[in-house]
Amino acid sequence: MMPDIGFVNGQFMPLADAVVSVEDRGFQFGDGVYEVIRTYGGRPFHLNAHLARLERSAKAIDLPCPLSPAQWAERVAEGIRLAGYRECKVYLQLTRGPAPRDHIFPTAVHPTVVMTVRELHPLSDGLRSGVSAITLPDFRWGRCDIKSIGLLANVLARQRAKDAGAFEAIFIRDGEVTEGAVSNVMIVRRGVLATSPEGERILSGVTRSLVLELARKEGLAVQERPVSEAELRGADEVFLTGTTVEVLPVNRIDGIAIGSGRPGPVVTLLAARFRNLTV
Ligand code: PDD
Fold it and tell me: Could you tell me if the CB of 146 is within 6 A of ligand 1?
């Protein structure tokens, strides 16, 4: 067993030994893409969907993917095996590699392939019973569908949430809810579930699509359409979806209670159905 695993360009090693060049374009420009995957019962959850999105993100930035999904899957399985934790958080990152600093792509690109495997700590029961969020103007770039490692805006937003005693920052662009700093956002009003449509303003969350599928199976009305800031604040229920947050009720936004201020029936049902997928 070799806990906290690093993988750099084909080699597994203890995470503490995993290093890349200071001239890596990921380090200097944020020129790269990533995925976060977690295990349930030791198995990576919806790995194929994450790997497909990694390929889409890489393609969107003209970055050749040195590993096929099948090759990735093999490395991920090996990393999880080496780490030996009960549950793991797997991070995959692909950058345009080391090159003398120049905005223009280098002529010969040697992508840097990185994976880390660390122990996953489940969310506390306290958080599961609902979190607070703040709202912020969406000051990110215009291609939020690409899972770019350039996360400065998300980092600043999440820190502002923390400084305000909240868990997540919900972004508002042109009066519409886009998503959270680390999650997608869904609202429920009079039994109808609504969430921002896929497109360049949000990340197409793996959890988002699973939860929408579960909601449809339950016979809920589901609308993928722009959600206004007023609808967010006036919703009966608001919740977050994401690999790290699963299905997480939002009880307060900017200090004001949403609905009853406690997890509502729809999020409670969907969280239970989601949990069934993970056992
Ligand atoms: N974030 N939106 C954003 C901006 C995200 O960063 C994430 C996930 C999601 C949810 O996507 P998914 O359901 O596929 O995890 C939505 C990862 C976990 C992170 O950056 O840590």
Answer: no
Please list the active-site residues: 147
Q: Are the C-beta atoms of residues 246 and 223 closer than 8 Å to each other?
A: no
Q: What is the pLDDT of residue 1?
A: 58
C-alpha to C-alpha distance for 36 and 143, rounded to whole angstroms: 18
Mean pLDDT of 68-88: 97
Q: Which two tokens stand for residue 36?
A: 């976060």
Q: Does the model's pTM come out above 0.85?
A: yes
Ligand 1 centroid to Cα of residue 242, in Å, is 5
Cα separation, 270 vs 267, whole angstroms: 5
Q: E strands, 41-164, where?
A: 43-44, 88-95, 112-119, 131-137
36 in ligand 1 pocket by Cβ < 6 Å?
yes
Q: In this model, does residue 23 exceed pLDDT 90?
A: yes
For residue 174, give both structure tokens.
Answer: 């042109």
What domains lie within the chain, and their CATH numbers?
Answer: 5-119 (3.30.470.10), 125-277 (3.20.10.10)
